[in-house]
Design a protein that fits this description.
The structure is a homodimer. Chain A is of the alpha+beta class. The first copy, chain A, contains nine helices and ten strands. The structure holds a DNA duplex.
Chain lengths: ~240, ~240
DNA sequence: TATTAAGTATGATCTAAGTCATTTTTTACC
DNA sequence: GGTAAAAAATGACTTAGATCATACTTAATA
C-alpha cells in the first residue's frame, strides 16, 4: 500500500527550512532581523508544503499569524457577489503575506491561495507583532511596504477605471513577467482574466491577438513574453 | 482700496487653530498624543486657509510633510494619460493626508486638492517621523490606518472590475454620504464621475434615473441621499 | 490507454456605456 | 444687472466587451 497523502505532505514539509539558510531571506522584510531574532523566529515558526490551489486564509476569517513564502506563488484575491474572483496581487518567494489584517484587528478582507506547489512558513500573531514592536528596521520596512502597496493599488484602480482591457492585459503581462522572473508566466486563463479584470473569453481572444502580433508566445498554458517594449507601448502610462 | 487677496488669506489663516482646541483632534490619528507632544506639534506646525481647488501636493513631487485637515474636504486623485482624474479618496475633517509617501521615500503617486474652502495644518517630515518613532499609539494608529486603507482599495478594485456603473454610483453615493455627514454631497458632476470611474455624461444620466426612482434629490449641484436602504440594495455587496 | 473532467478556444448576439455635438442652466465677474 | 464662461443636461450614434452556446484540447485518474 502506498503512502497516504498526509504522509507525503509531511515528508515534504520536513525540508527543515531554517530562516538562516532561507534563500528568500535577503529579499524579504525579515532581512533586517538580527541573528538572535532569526533564531527566535525559527523556533516559533512552522513550515509546510502546500499543494496547488490550497488556501492560506479565506475572506472574513480572523488572522492568526503571517505567512512567509519560501518557495512558490500565492494569489491574493477577493470574491464578488457572483463568486467571480478579482486577483489583487500575486505574491512570490520572499514575500510575507497576511500581515495587513494583523494591524487593523479586522477579519481578512481578501483571501489567499497557492497558485502552484509552495513551501510556506507560518509565524504566529504574537511573535510577529512582538518583532514589529521591538525591531525598528522591520517596522520601517513594513511601513514602507504598506505605503508602496497603497500607491500600487491607487494606480491599479486608475487602470481599471480608465484603461481598455487590451491595455490592462499588456500591463498585467508586464507585471507578471517580473513576478515570474526567469520562468514563463504560469496562470490559468481564468486566473489571468481575474487579474486583468475581464471575462475569460475576452482574455483568450485578446491573448490570441497578442500572439498574432508577436508580443507573446504560449506554451500550452504558460505564456512567454516576447516583446516587452511592445507591451510597454501598448500598456500606456 | 480693498484688501488684497493675500491679506484676506493671511487673515483667515491666522485663526490660530491650536491642536489642543482643534475640533478634529478626537477623530484624528493624533488623538493619542500626550499634552507635551501636542504642544510640540503646535509649535512646529503651520496652519493655512485654502481656497477651493487648491493643490496640497502634486503627483511626482517629493513629500515635505503631512497635512492635517482642520476643516474642509480634500480629494486624493491620480491623473490618467489623457488627463482624466481618478479620485481615490475624499478626505475630511480630522484626516491626515500625505503620510503614505513619507514612509516609502518615493515621490507622491497621487495628488491632493481641496474640494472646498479648507483650513489645513502642515507638519514637517522630520517632526512627523519623529513622533511616529517615539509614540507607540500613534504608530499603531498609522499601521491600522494603512492596513484598513489597503483593504478599502482592494474592494475598490473589485468594484471597478466587476460592478456596473449604476452599482458603483450607488455605492459611491453611500460612501460620500458618510463623508459629508450632515451636509449634502457637494461635488461637481465631473468630480463625482471621476470618483465613480465613468464619463460625466453617463454619470448625469444615471443620476437622473436615481432622481426618478426617488433615491436621491438634487439641490442644484448638491446631492441629497433620500433612500439609503435603496442604494444599499442597488450597490450589492 | 480509455474515459472523464477541466481548461481552452471560437462564434453569434446583445447591451452598457463611451464619444461627440448641442442646448440649457448656473456661476463668476466686469 | 448684464455678459461671458463654466457646468449641467440631453440627444444621436458607436463599439468594446459581456454573455451564452458549443467545440476542441490537455490533463487527470481509474
Amino acid at each position: 500500500m502506498g503512502k497516504r497523502i498526509d504522509d507525503l505532505m509531511l515528508e515534504k514539509s520536513h525540508k527543515h527550512v531554517t530562516c538562516e539558510t532561507c534563500g528568500a531571506l535577503k529579499d524579504s522584510l525579515f532581512c533586517s532581523l538580527t541573528g538572535d531574532e532569526l533564531t527566535s523566529v525559527d523556533s516559533n515558526k512552522s513550515c509546510s508544503y502546500f499543494k496547488k490551489d490550497q488556501p492560506l486564509f479565506i475572506e472574513g476569517s480572523l488572522p492568526r499569524g503571517v505567512f512567509c513564502i519560501n518557495e512558490g506563488k500565492v494569489k491574493i484575491y477577493s470574491r464578488g457577489e457572483d463568486g467571480k474572483e478579482q486577483i489583487i496581487h500575486v505574491a512570490t518567494t520572499g514575500e510575507i503575506v497576511g500581515f495587513r489584517a494583523m494591524f487593523s484587528g479586522e477579519a481578512y478582507g481578501v483571501a489567499a491561495n497557492t497558485l502552484e506547489e509552495s513551501n510556506i512558513c507560518f509565524i504566529g500573531k504574537g511573535d510577529f507583532l512582538n518583532m514589529v514592536d521591538t525591531n525598528v528596521n522591520l517596522r520601517n520596512g513594513i511601513l514602507r511596504e504598506l505605503s508602496k502597496e497603497l500607491a500600487d493599488r491607487a494606480s491599479f484602480i486608475k487602470n481599471m477605471a480608465q484603461k481598455s482591457v487590451r491595455e490592462r492585459l499588456a500591463s498585467s503581462l508586464l507585471i507578471l513577467d517580473d513576478i515570474y522572473a526567469e520562468d514563463f508566466i504560469n496562470l490559468s486563463r481564468e486566473d489571468l482574466a481575474n487579474f486583468v479584470g475581464t471575462a475569460t473569453e475576452t482574455l483568450i481572444r485578446l491573448l490570441k491577438d497578442f500572439k498574432d502580433e508577436g508580443l507573446v508566445k504560449t506554451h500550452v498554458r504558460k505564456i512567454e513574453v516576447l516583446d516587452k517594449e511592445g507591451l510597454i507601448q501598448l500598456a500606456g502610462s
